[in-house]
Structure formats: C-alpha cells, structure tokens
C-alpha cells in the first residue's frame, strides 16, 4: 500500500469545506484509517456551504461520517477539541501524516507559533516536532504579510503549503472537478493513489500514443 496507512484530517473555519469532505471520502475509499478533527467554526462553514449537518458530539459524528462515506467500523475516528488523551496528541501514537483542509488563517497562525490551544493545534505541533508530514491547505484571498510570514515559517519547518488554488489545464466542467483538482494534489503529496487527475504529461502522452 502506497502512502501512510493512518492520517489525521483536520477541518477548520475557512471556506472550502468541500475539500475536506472529498479528501475524507477518498482516504476511506483507499482504505486509510482517518483520525478526524473539526473546529466549531468549520462545522458552521460546512452547514453553510454543503447540505451536510454533522452531529455535535464526537461519537455521533463518527457514526454519521462512517455511514456517510461507507467506511468500515473503526476506520474513521473522531475526537473532540480537548481530547488530550487521543492518539493524535502524542508523538508515540499519532499518525505519520496530517492534513489541515481547509486551514483558516487563525489556525495557520496558531500552528506556526505552537499555540496548542486545542487538539487540532496540538496534533499539528506533534507532527512538526516528530518531523512527520504536515500539509496545510489555506483558503484565503488576498494574503496579508502576516499570513505569508506564517506560511514561510511553517514551510521552513518542513510543512507543505498547498493553497486551495485549482488549475484549469484539465478543462474542468463542474465545481466538483475543481475540488477534485486540489484533493488530487493533496493525495499525490501523501503518495496515496488517485485517479481524479492525471499527473502532468500523462494526458498528453496518452494522446500521442493514440
């Protein structure tokens, strides 16, 4: 199996809830174990941008997402914002990769400064200190100097900064295609297989061979 088997997925209160939901679905389909974290602000954004209404309690949310994605029992694990005894809060038990998508600029700042005021921030701090894979997907426009400085700081720490900026060379026909572009890029960095978007050159090479 390519890529990490256990991945932490955090959704925070920036626009772009569809990216997080789509990534969750893709990871489930690729039989990955997902440790799911979501802020209250992200739940509000999710309810605004989609027709998905998550239950407020972690256990009920876990059951809902398991049924929503068709995941196996125990494949998705949901934690509350102050569940300090969860595996993602410790370097000895945390998954080897974490994605924050979408990532608000507030969460970006907190991670860059090591704030650790909630489990999302602590989980990211653990990934950084253990030199594991952290992918940050900010969704903001325009960026202020503060945002850019925080991104540079995290990049220098080894995090990957992947703005939610879909490309158009694959000639998208729908919003879903634009969402898939960003999610496919995340999966490529994680080295998790995906068939939503050909790697650059694959499409043209196929055309030459025909």
Order of strands across the main sheet: 3-2-1-4-5-6
Characterize the biggest β-sheet: 6 strands, parallel
Give the helices and strands as they follow along the chain: EHEHHEEHHEHEHH
Q: Indicate the mean pLDDT.
A: 94
Proportion of beta-strand residues: 5-15%
Low-confidence stretches are 205-210
Estimated radius of gyration: 17 Å
**CA-CA gap between termini:** 31 Å
Describe the structure.
This protein is of the alpha/beta class and 210 residues long. Helices cover 43% and strands 14% of the residues. The relative contact order is 0.16. It is built from eight helices and six strands; from the N terminus they run βαβααββααβαβαα. The longest helix has 16 residues, at 175-190. It is globular and about 45 Å long. Mean pLDDT is 94; it is low at 205-210. It has a six-stranded parallel β-sheet with strand order 3-2-1-4-5-6, with helices on both faces.
List keywords for this structure.
single chain; six-stranded parallel beta sheet; 14% strand; alpha/beta; globular
List the helices and strands and how they pair.
Elements: E1 6-11, H1 17-29, E2 33-38, H2 40-49, H3 58-69, E3 76-78, E4 97-103, H4 105-113, H5 119-129, E5 133-138, H6 145-156, E6 160-161, H7 175-190, H8 202-209
Parallel strand pairs: 1-2, 1-4, 2-3, 4-5, 5-6
How would you summarize this macromolecular structure in one to three sentences?
With 210 residues, this protein is an alpha/beta fold. The protein is built from eight helices and six strands, in the order βαβααββααβαβαα.
